[in-house]
Amino acid sequence: DVKVTQSSRYLVKRTGEKVFLECVQDMDHENMFWYRQDPGLGLRLIYFSYDVKMKEKGDIPEGYSVSREKKERFSLILESASTNQTSMYLCASSRGQGPSSYEQYFGPGTRLTVT
Amino acid sequence: AQSVAQPEDQVNVAEGNPLTVKCTYSVSGNPYLFWYVQYPNRGLQFLLKYITGDNLVKGSYGFEAEFNKSQTSFHLKKPSALVSDSALYFCAVSEPAGNQFYFGTGTSLTVIP
Question: Hey, which residues 41-100 in chain B have their CB within 8 Å of chain A?
Fold first, then answer.
């Protein structure tokens, strides 16, 4: 079974802090994704990566950056956390490079609260 | 422009009745279409997908979905709903032409015993 793990289930940070969310997948998938999930807004794509050191902006990249130094690891960085970044963050991975016919596998999510 | 639309935030159905969760899309080319489910306090799980071929695709837990190109729809269906089907359902599209992935806003399904 594919396993996607996220570094924390719950995280509380203060406004202005730098926040790192880590995601690791163990199935050698090329694609990795970061989403945020908010009630009424569904899942919104922040960034995705289809290869090591490659990244593409999604719908809402502002205020976020990403890093993919190794194939299995995809990090989401909030340079200066703000209260409007309080949300559930979901990481996912899939086979293929870029939009493909392969389904995504999701991690359990990190609920981030910025106070 | 909204690329994937789930017009119903909430769907209620009695146990044993057929259920339908609606999804329409508006992307170019030949997109790939997916349904995912999120049970309470759990991560998203893949249910089924349409890539090409037969318009009716079958997936996990007895769910199926029908691809209708002329109506640009991909509705999720199940002949007989179970209380355990109560969850949040997301439609998604993978658009190779535009190099994008999109998810719908989700539909909360409640199956009433």
Answer: 42-46, 49, 51, 90, 92, 94-96, 98-100
